[in-house]
Description:
The complex is a heterodimer.
Chain A: H1 2-8, H2 16-39, H3 46-53, H4 55-88, H5 91-106, H6 109-120, H7 125-132, H8 146-171, H9 174-182, H10 187-215, H11 219-225, H12 232-241, H13 246-276
Helix pairs in contact in A: 2-13, 3-13, 4-5, 4-8, 4-10, 6-8, 6-11, 8-10, 8-11, 9-10, 10-13, 12-13
Chain B: H1 10-37, H2 54-61, H3 63-96, H4 102-114, H5 117-131, H6 137-161, H7 165-173, H8 178-189, H9 191-207, H10 210-215, H11 223-233, H12 237-265
Helix pairs in contact in B: 1-12, 2-12, 3-6, 3-9, 3-11, 4-6, 6-9, 7-8
Amino acid sequence: MFSAARRRGSGLGFALPATVLLIAFFVVPVAALLARSITEPEPGWQNYQALLGSTTYLRIFFNTFFVAGVVTLVTVLIAFPVAWALAIMPRRWAGVIFAIILLSMWTNLLARTYAWMVLLQQTGLINRTLQALGLIDQPLQLTNNLVGVTIGMTYIMLPFMILPLLGVIRKIDPAILQAAALCGATKGQALRRVLLPLAAPGLASGGLMVFVMSLGYFVTPSLLGGTANMMLAELIAQQVQSLVNWGMGGAAAFVLLVVTLGLYAVQLRFFERQEAR
Amino acid sequence: MLLDFDKLGAWKWVLSAICAVMALFLLLPILFIVALSFGSSRWLIFPPPGWTLKWYEDLFADPRWIGAALTSAKIGVIVMVLSVALGLLASLALVRGTFRGRAVLRAFFLTPMILPVIIVAVALYAAFLRLGLNGTLPGFVIAHLIVALPFAIITISGALETFDPAIEDAAILCGASPWEARFRVTLPGIRHGLFSAAIFSFLISWDEVVLAIFMASPSLQTLPVKVWTTLRQDLTPVIAAASTLLVALTVLLMLVAAVFRKGKSE
């Protein structure tokens, strides 16, 4: 046995191809991009000063955090009852809904965004229905603004909130809630003081994941938001592709990177504490 | 009580209703696109005034759509093979390795998954401009491999963790060389993991948009890039037809995966 294990060696060599690939085409390029933010057009902090000092860019930061925040809030509010129901529903129904969630998640991102571009346009189904019902006189402006971005992003992020939350709720022992009932808790009390606190780690980690993913999202905001309502990822793309301003693009990428990694660090901390309990 | 569906009382109906509305919210836009792809209205009026296959004819008559789909498939298959191969080697190191710092190495391998893909895209775009890899097949493959590899590593190392190394040791004790043991004992033992990793890697590459937009050139583009550039001009029903075919592919792969899972559990 031991000789077999020894003959296998430490195994470090097996990690070599992936490591080389990631260093050459991930670590070095990202580091080079970030470096350009303080070296171009000339060495110094001017890119960051411009980025954090102008109302145009502050507006983009605001858009990004605002949309990510609203999307997170809405997905949390929808995902909690859905994950709760999925965890306890009769299996056949839960299976159907689960399949729909997976289908939506695995359907091509552009196909889903296209669906919302068509549904939300001025002559789209949603405006026509609202007009036919007499709720509005003039079609609402639902695309090329943050309303459209928020709707489209909520649609895309929902599965990422439901699935982790479902995992957490499934692990809760039903006996704990029976105990709450036996001790005389009403349903409202049991929900507020037992089920929600037990589901909180799932809500927090799912919410953080949705928030972070939303911050760096590119496709849906650019298609549903239009150029007047830019978000951070679009700013990076625009600086690099259209304006060929690598310094500014690098600075914006650095800000996004720091915020993303910072929030993941918070999550890791949070989870270590949870597991240590 | 709250976790027993039959004892929820009126809450049961509220929860079921929320679930049903959410399921419709997720499902209807997809069905809507499928319906529009067969609708005769150029302006995407719903319900369609009539039915037609015109948009599919347009799609298949345009060599650019076919070319983009073939490019996507080619890149997807290469990425799939490389991702499973590198993912397997990396997983062997992470799970079977005895060196120090495996947890750090694992975290390093998974970083491309958590960074916003726009950062990777812009960084690679800059690097590839210098290396002359922009708009080339290797450029696409490398870019997609970076984001597919973490998923392959997660899937394969998961399978490897549940495979008892003592079986491999037994093969070696019975006279197999370590490589023979790996190929003829361990690989078949984790074939489910390898298969899932392959499907995941292919799908990630096939569906990937952001990196592809930056890697594409007028002469070489993938299907998502073609959809993207067309979408920026107008909302033509041809995209509905293309999207429907993509949805069909998704459903097909989900069914294959379901049958596969069933076979595994039996």
